[in-house]
Inverse folding.
């Protein structure tokens, strides 16, 4: 079965018509894509705003006045301390203001007679902190360790507590 020249010409015309239809469809799709991108450019760039999550409060302590005072402050500069409530073992508590200053006398009275009054030691405290972050009031409750040592003594002198450190516990 051989094709006649007339059938070959008809087949050729049919392929030209299919090719033209495909080319027209591609042209229409390209035109729609161009129109869509042109409309998107008129609205301007999308603004992406990145919101920061809340940063947990972490405290650090620095010993001042030769161990007579411990200043507790937030590690993050974006946190503003409002107050601290320290809960010692045995139900004793101590409060500080926004300066976070805790005296050795307050720790000594919170320890009471259970400390043994010799050498070095540490006590685990639960700190309930109220602070401000990004204009919002927040609270945090964590365990920390206050380290201390007893000094003095002798025949007529009494012992006194000196604070030596502060850390997470």
């Amino acid at each position: 079965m051989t094709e006649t020249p007339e059938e070959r010409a008809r087949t050729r015309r049919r392929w030209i018509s299919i090719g033209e239809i495909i080319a027209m469809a591609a042209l229409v799709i390209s035109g729609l894509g161009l129109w869509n991108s042109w409309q998107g450019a008129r609205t301007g760039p999308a603004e992406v705003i990145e919101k920061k999550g809340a940063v947990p409060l972490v405290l650090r302590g620095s010993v001042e006045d030769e161990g007579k005072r411990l200043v507790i402050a937030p590690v993050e500069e974006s946190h503003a301390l409002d107050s601290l409530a320290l809960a010692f073992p045995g139900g004793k508590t101590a409060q500080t203001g926004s300066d976070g200053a805790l005296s050795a006398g307050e720790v000594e009275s919170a320890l009471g007679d259970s400390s043994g009054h010799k050498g070095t030691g540490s006590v685990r405290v639960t700190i309930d902190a109220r602070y401000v972050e990004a204009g919002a009031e927040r609270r945090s409750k964590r365990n920390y360790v206050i380290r201390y040592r007893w000094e003095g003594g002798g025949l007529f002198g009494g012992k006194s507590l000196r604070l030596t450190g502060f850390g997470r516990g």
